[in-house]
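Second attempt. The first submission of Probable tRNA pseudouridine synthase B had a stray character pasted in from the spreadsheet, which I only caught after the job came back as garbage. Lesson logged: always re-copy from the clean sequence file. Corrected sequence (331 aa) follows.
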Amino acid sequence: MNLLPSERKRETLVKSEDTTDERSGKRPIDRPIQEYIQKGVINLDKPAGPTSHEVTSWVKKILEIDKAGHSGTLDPGVTGLLPIMLGDATKAVDALLTAGKEYVCLMKLHTEVPEREIKRIFSEFTGEIYQMPSIKSAVKRETRIRNIYYLELLEIEDKNVLFKVGCEAGTYIRKLCHDMGLALGTGAHMQELRRTKSGPFREDKTMVTLHDLKDAYVEWKENSNEELLREVILPMEVGLSHLPKIVIRDSAVDAVCHGAGLAAAGVLTLESGIERGDPVAVFTQKGEAVSFGRAQMRSIEILKAATGIVVSTDRVLLEPGTYPKGWKAKE
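This time the job returned cleanly.
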């Protein structure tokens, strides 16, 4: 099975046990509908034609909200997964931008090539590759290293090659097709492209269209029925589920909400495989996203640590005061 790095299983390590105060915070699915929307994410199926920015603008108009942000731009002609964070959840967009992606691509060869040759080139282009962004790209044109996690040949018909590719964020599939065409000695270009995975989001799980979103919102507004809206909008925590997870004590939550680093004493459970510098997500015992940041220790070191900062805080996602203050300010 082809897996992106974020899809590989991680073991949960228990550092200590604690009880949670039921009077503070709430499970993401229990948020009142207005708060649920403002802390939500949509696993949107982008149609061909509009830009990612236009689609995001339409989402804001449909839901009558001021803020929304997409994760990972898709060209106008490209379809598929476009995660859109809503309202306060836009703070978490950065955590999705660097997540691995998967695409299904139709590549057009300029001359027919035997299947064995295509498979050979796929093997050569798996792993680290060098890419120069195209002239039309929005980033600086300089050679970059990108990781191709897997290339799977799906079908060949004459000059048409259908394949699946799992890759690092920032990989240009159009350029990948061009470069593979050069390596084959025939030339090639990208004919069609669809994104099927982006971090924790998958094409086969809770993917919705703009029409689905509009219908669900109208149903809530006109009939006070929240059910459909809660199906098409997911809690923002889903958008962080690809990151290694650390669960903390209630008494440690408010300090992190004020921007403090996470101290070792505040950790209850964590996932295995964390290395220093890795991005990690910090959660309450009720499953609320508190923040995300960078690990300052490896998993095994965090498990054994009694003191010290184990995660630096890059972005706070939970409002201060949601949990009782468990720290004292320096005088």
